[in-house]
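Example record for the data management plan.
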Amino acid sequence: MKKLNDMIKRNIVVIGASAGGFEALKKIVKELPSDFQASIFIVWHMSPDVRGILPEIFNKLNSIHAANAYDLEAIVPNRIYVAPPDHHLLVEEGLVRVTHGPKENRFRPAVDPLFRSAAYAYGNRVIGIILSGGLDDGTAGLWRIKSSGGVAVVQDPADAEVSSMPESAMREVDVDYCVPLDAIAELLVKLTTQDIKTDGTTMRDDKTRIEINIAAEENALENGSLDIGSLSPYACPECHGVLSRITDGKIVRFRCHTGHAYSSDTLMAALSEKIEDSLYGAIRGMDESILLLNHLGDHFAENNQLQLAAIYFRKAKEVQERSTAIRLAVRSHEHLSKNKLMEEIDQDSTV
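Corresponding structural encoding:
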């Protein structure tokens, strides 16, 4: 058993990527030495019906064995574990967990559950890396890794195909390294060969344990999902359950009592989409009302009930006018995100 201040290695590498991350992941795996002794865990956002092709590609690039992870698989060095489609990838001490828990940041697999579980299980032995991607999945998880004594790495946003994920991490987390893609494999070799001390900084708090259990498919409400934050006025965009507001340092995020979780940026994006869906729903209802009113007006006109027909035609025209206003609202509706608002600040400052 390791004693306090025994020398150990950083041998748990967790990587999160989304849009633009496919080529980045390939490059990192290709450039790692074949005898790389750490265990690598990868979450890449993908559609739930996409076949998990990453391991096949990685195995053509390097002799480090890669495979879609399976539940309760042993963790061994010199191995790449990939989150399979539509499943979260988690780690426990010595074991991999593959689960179908609630979506986080509208994804399954999501980056935050992997990062959170790695920090909880392995503390300062963890290296967390955020690559190219949209919005901010992984930011809260990287904060947890850093707060547990691990190393926080982001791909240089200027070097990323989609810069939002690394930019978000840099805003919210005191990252240790911001490097271009070309330098990440070399950095990993350096970090995993350095001796470090066990320092007892692993944050095994109740909140993190509850959130890991939720991702591991345990009943969110029975596990205390309502106890890990303060109730907010917002409803979950996915299931309409009440959202609790959770704070990690300066990071604010949300989780509903059924288990769905959102960063503040992802929640904003989801609500923006719901607004558009609702507006189109109103337009559909109005179009149907116009069709029915005109149809009935024609019916009454054919039966020589001209006064009644005129009322129906007039009401159809009034609905049409209201529909036009809503169509204008749809065209002017914005899909908001923190990065987009930050860009507006930059634009305003240059005027």
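Summary line stored alongside the record: The mean pLDDT is 92.
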